[in-house]
User: Fold Reverse transcriptase zinc-binding domain-containing protein from Pleurodeles waltl.
Amino acid sequence: MFKTHDKGGKGVPDIATILRGTFVCHCVRNTLRAKDESHAGFLMARFFLLPTWRRLGWAEWDSAVPYNWETPWFYKEVEKFIKEHGPAASAPTQWTPKIVQRQIRARDVSEPIGALPSATADHVWRNVASKCLTNQHKDIAWMAIQGGLPVRAFMHARGLNRYKSCPRGCTADETTYHLFWECAYAQDLLKALITELVAWIPTTCITADSVMYGLFPGSHALGDLQGCWRLLCCFKDVLLFSRNRLVVGKKETSTLDCRKMIHSLLHDYAALDGSDDDSDDET
Ligand SMILES: [Zn+2]
Assistant:
């Protein structure tokens, strides 16, 4: 129906599936659970759907009732949807929009991430949807993994940019991985943030994977992991901002200024935490 945040989705409803499911439930209710069998809607739907219900074992064959083997396309969708999303053996009473949507949502699987095992991908999506992040940082982390950030390699592949090399003068293509890890500018900024990083975890834990996917529980406390993940998300946010400032506004941003911006974002997080504590006290 829609992928939840902890499964790598954005919680956006899949309107086409919802409408198709509602139509099938309406057909089932109209023909198999109808109380009044004399109205025109019931007779027409049964005329076209009787062969389908018979194949599914949901209706008795009744030769005295007229039926049609040449089902119109929109009634063919009913059988297709039932085969796709529902077990044929489930009773017609189970076909209500609420139950069908719940069953489809329960079968949702996490979005795969490259060659990562599914359990690791689950943890990464939980990191991305962490409550300790602001919505903007969740979006940047999500787009960095899904490859949706408008960096030069992404734009060039879609014919939207003439160049695909890094705007900071590197010979490599500007991919998300390059922007957030490989680029000398990103490495310089990470070095400038050493003091802040070691306050949470040892620098040996800071790798390309931890910048892109977040940190994994090990011997570190949960608070330390969250604090470091916040810092890395601020790092990505500021890198993206300075990159856009360079490409669009032709203005350089020094590493020192980037560090100050990261401090400012962390200060906002501290203020948010304070306001959360206040609201908890009031409740
Ligand atoms: Zn570069």
In short: Residues 222-249 form the longest helix (28 residues). Residues 166, 168, 170, 178, 183 surround zinc ion (CB under 6 Å).
